[in-house]
Design a protein that fits this description.
The chain is 17% helix and 30% strand. With 317 residues, the chain is of the alpha/beta class.
Length: 317
């Protein structure tokens, strides 16, 4: 998420009430999670396991809960609770704004687009030309929808990320200030849920088609011309490259990449990144032909055991 204007390090430190290491006028352009940071961004880290990753990332401002040596060309924001202060920044730069109408006055809707009854369109949403948004769709603030997009009834675009920190008193939510971006010629089925990014974008690429009851979690990027069948659940920060086919009831873990033109057969569980151009099946998902051979061999086990038993009986005679 980029800020409306460039801020100084000192200004940011005053917003969250923490001390800083670096020049007062060190330029701060925005804030992002570590997998999408760019120079000028703030990234937060609150666990020793990830200190080095954050300090060596592309981010040039690190919000951290420990005094460490500041890398060359970077600045630090030193906080007793980086998670809390990252939320403060989200609330400051992209606070929740209550809507006063079913279709916000700040929404931009393109020529030829049809908005059916009972649709909610939030603040600063952009919808392109010749789209059809069916009844009871909810499109949260800041979503961007391209041309020739169809969204079927009950779909929700832009709900919060499922991202929590465990505290002694319960779970503390990481605030979501990102967007959902739907490119041209996308079809989204009924009752789909596409969560916005925490600070970046959840993106559905041009020409992709999503069946009913599919969940796409925060910051996931789906490429162009993908097909995703019903009841698939895609975790956060997943990259699905172009022309991938995912059949029904597939589930994925977070932070993986599924390569271009991969095919994942129904009810598979994807626990690691998969190469493109291959078919996969099973849980954990493996090469489909190899998995089918394994299943065939499993069916042969009773026969093998029976033969072994017969051999043992023959030797005892």
């Amino acid at each position: 998420m980029k800020f409306p204007r460039i801020h100084t390090l000192k200004e940011i430190s005053e917003i969250i009430g923490c001390r800083f290491i670096g020049a007062d006028d060190f330029a701060v352009h925005g804030m992002n999670e570590i997998h999408v940071v760019e120079p000028g961004d703030i990234v937060f880290v609150d666990h020793p396991k990830y200190y080095d990753k954050a300090l060596q990332s592309a981010a040039t401002i690190v919000l951290i809960n420990k005094d460490v040596e500041c890398p060359d060309g970077k600045a630090l924001l030193v906080s007793d609770d980086p998670f809390r202060d990252f939320n403060k920044l989200t609330n400051h730069f992209r606070p929740f704004r209550a809507s006063r109408a079913s279709v916000s006055e700040s929404a931009i809707i393109g020529e030829g687009t049809i908005i059916q009854p009972n649709v909610f369109v939030g603040n600063h949403v952009t919808i392109g030309k010749n789209c059809v948004i069916h009844a009871n769709v909810a499109i949260y603030d800041h979503a961007v929808i391209g041309d020739n997009v169809t969204i079927h009834s009950g779909a929700v675009l832009g709900a919060d990320a499922f991202y929590y920190k465990k505290r002694p008193e319960g779970f503390d939510q990481l605030k979501s200030g990102g967007r959902v971006v739907i490119e041209d010629n996308v079809h989204i089925g009924a009752l789909c849920t596409i969560d916005r990014g925490v600070t970046g974008d959840t993106t559905i690429g041009a020409g992709s088609k999503i069946d009913n009851q599919v969940h796409v979690a925060h910051d996931t990027v789906i490429g162009k011309k993908c097909l995703i069948a019903a009841q698939t659940g895609i975790a956060g920060c997943v990259v699905i490259e172009d022309e991938v086919t995912i059949w029904g009831q597939v589930g994925t873990t977070s932070g993986i990449t599924i390569g271009e033109k991969a095919v994942i057969l129904a009810q598979s569980g994807v626990g690691k990144s998969l190469e493109g151009g291959k078919s996969y099946f099973g849980s954990p998902a493996e090469d489909a032909r190899e998995k089918m051979k394994q299943l065939t061999n499993l069916k042969r086990i009773p026969d093998i055991l029976e033969k072994l038993s017969d051999l043992k009986n023959d030797k005892s005679l």
